[in-house]
Amino acid sequence: MPGKYGNDLSESSTLIKFAKLLMSMNESQLSGSKSGVMPYGKYRAFSPIQLPDRSWPHKQLNEAPMWCSVDLRDGNQALIDPMTVDEKTRMFELLVNIGFIEIEVGFPAASQPDFDFIRKLIDQDLVPDNVTLQVLCQAREELITRTIEALDGAKKAIFHLYNSTSTLQRRVVFDMDQSEIVDLAVSGTELVRKMCGGLSSTDIRFEYSPESFTGTELDFAIEVSESVAKTWGATPDDKIIINLPSTVELATPNIYADQIEYFCRNYKYRDSSVISLHTHNDRGTGVAATELALMAGAERVEGTLFGNGERTGNCDLVTVAMNLFSQGVDPQLDLRDMTGIRETVIGINKLPVHPRHPYAGDLVFTAFSGSHQDAIRKGMAQVDRERWEVPYLPIDPADIGASYRESVRVNSQSGKGGVGFILEEYFDIHLPRDMLVEFARDVQSLTETKQREVSPDEILEQLFIEYSVESGPYRLLRWEVDGEEPDISVNASMALADSFLELKGTGTTPIDGFVNSLVETINEPLQLEAYQLYGTSNFDGVFQKVPQFGIATISFEGQKYFGISRDRDVIERSFLAVLSALNRQWRETSGQTN
Q: Are strands 499-507 and 526-534 parallel, antiparallel or unpaired?
């Protein structure tokens, strides 16, 4: 049938308009990757705020803000699979245990599961007396009515009303001018105030967000917020919450701080309002923007655990709180079981937390670099637990339930510091420095061969493999010791390659007498430098159980050699450690391998 099929090729068609637009664009804008230049010309820099006497750069954060978790609303709407009611309940319990007393629990007018969850909290009396439920709602009558229904019976609640105010949203989404936006916010506020009167058993507070505040003219954001505050009847004794969201992060954090300071200076209901923040992380600076905006005068922060949220996420409340903690400020949140918190959130959100996530990641306290490990090892050896100062560890891992042992792990990038730290912290083994330098090279070869990280147990086993050498030319056959220290006589038989030798010597200790008998019999420039005993005899429950062993350090022609023997009679162990050192000396000078 004529006209039913085919394309409209008239001058006014969308297709023709789009083609002309493409033809008019600069070639470099269309094919930036082809020309090697990204099409940066299609974007514009954000205009700075004219605030030459800004005061926030000189401020310091010395107290925690009011916290409000939005994990159950903003965080939930960012999930691939939104939380079930049971999962929401688990998340709510976690947030309460951490210490949040303001929790945004959902958008009940937009979601039946949100509505059902809020009713479960209220009807089953699951909300502690000190916790306030916050709900979000657009400035539309039918949504406000439904939200009031959800709150019926709550002890404490914050009704969070919002409408978008940005120039872009006004033009593209709503086709409304400024006066129409103000009318929408005011009429919504009036309706909320009227309907809240029916919640006689609920202590209601009011919050207003000029959504996309960062893209709104500052004077207009102030105008609409003042209109809302006036309509609500905000007073110093009954403050309104004015939430100024960086709904989309459009500029550097300092500009957001300037916007907040400008707003606080010029907003006439400042003493009747709590200024709240709600940053997003589109530019990767949501935490920094929040911190600077707090310095600029804000008092309250909305965000999520570990920053889960739409696009690149919300403000990460864990990071902001731990940043305060690291500066000696009480964060007013209990994050001592960081691993448990992380695993619970992962289980509910079904999203990973990055291994290098600040404070919370599996590897956040872990150093593989040799120079870092050496500095950590030395710092841990002399740290004052009452005044934490350890290189590369801004906080004590133990403060959030982690082990400082995990701060050092060994791979091919590691050095003596890492190897020494592992042996000391896991096994209470303190190698002589020259031996540690030598052994670290052996461990590095091991990691390169395995092409992976090596565990503490593997390092310990490699120590025994490298330094317990009983298969060389020096072999002990028989021994006996007479006398008491410091007057000891040693008689022994040993094999030296294909020869058999009888040894006799005296000393202040058995090992001293054995070395003296070797010197007298084989006429070699051999000297005992040190002997150390390790193992279960000094195991105190802090260190992992290791077999009893001894480390002998001998000097042979001016060069130090080290040997180990384990799991033998205490005296025999010392003799075999000396012979292991000699076997290693022979192996090295003769060019033999294991």
A: unpaired
Distance of alpha carbon 544 from its chain centroid, rounded? 27
- Closest Cα partner for 104 from 70, 154, 129? 70
Degrees to nearest 5, angle at CA 309 with 303 and 311: 135
* 22-26: average pLDDT: 52
Q: CB 381: neighbour CB atoms within 10 A? A: 11
Task: Give dist(CA 526, CA 579) in Å, integer.
Answer: 11
Residue with tokens 């969308």: 14
Instruction: Please tell me the distance from the alpha carbon of residue 103 to that of residue 121, in angstroms, as a whole number.
Output: 12
> What pTM was estimated for this model as a whole?
0.77
- Rounded to 5 degrees, what are φ and ψ at 303? 180, -165
Amino acid at 99: G
Please state, in angstroms and rounded to a whole number, the distance separating the CA atoms of residues 253 and 290. Answer: 8
Q: What's the chain's Rg over C-alpha atoms?
A: 36
Give kind and range of the element (H or E) at residue 520: helix 510-522
pLDDT tens sequence across 161-214:
999 999 999 999 989 999 999 999 999 999 999 999 888 899 999 999 999 999
- Which of 148-162, 384-398, 430-444, 543-557 shows the lowest per-residue confidence on average (mean pLDDT)? 543-557
Give the mean pLDDT of 289-293. 98
Cα–Cα distance for residue pair 199/122, rounded to 1 Å: 13
d(CA 261, CA 224): 17
One-letter amino acid at 463 equals L
Q: Who contacts 435 (Cβ-Cβ below 8 Å, separation ≥6)?
A: 467, 551, 553, 560, 562
**CA 200, chain centre distance (Å):** 44
For β-strands 526-534 and 549-556, DSSP reports them as antiparallel
Distance CA 466, CA 440 (A): 11
Q: Which residues of 260-282 are buried (b: 16+ CB within 10 A; e: fewer)?
A: bbbbbeebebeebbbbbbbbbbb
201-205: long-range pairs with CB below 8 Å, 24+: 201/153, 201/155, 202/151, 202/152, 202/153, 202/154, 202/155, 202/156, 202/157, 203/155, 203/156, 203/157, 204/151, 204/157, 204/158, 204/159, 205/132, 205/156, 205/157, 205/158, 205/159, 205/239, 205/240, 205/241
Helix/strand/coil for 506: strand
CA distance 98 to 334: 5
Which residue, among 214, 261, 228, has the nearest Cα to 159 in the 3D structure? Answer: 228
For residue 352, CA distances in Å to 156, 280, 349, 534 come to 33, 19, 8, 42
Q: Are 489 and 481 in contact (CB under 8 A)?
A: yes
Could you give the CA distance from residue 419 to residue 406 in angstroms, rounded to a whole number?
13
Distance (Å, rounded) from C-alpha 542 to C-alpha 537? 13
Nearest to 276 by CA among 75, 93, 50, 104: 104
CB-based contacts of 503, cutoff 8 Å, min separation 6: 490, 491, 492, 493, 494, 514, 517, 518, 520, 521
Q: CA geometry: angle at 369 spanning 368 and 371, to 5°?
A: 140
Distance CA 141, CA 133 (A): 21
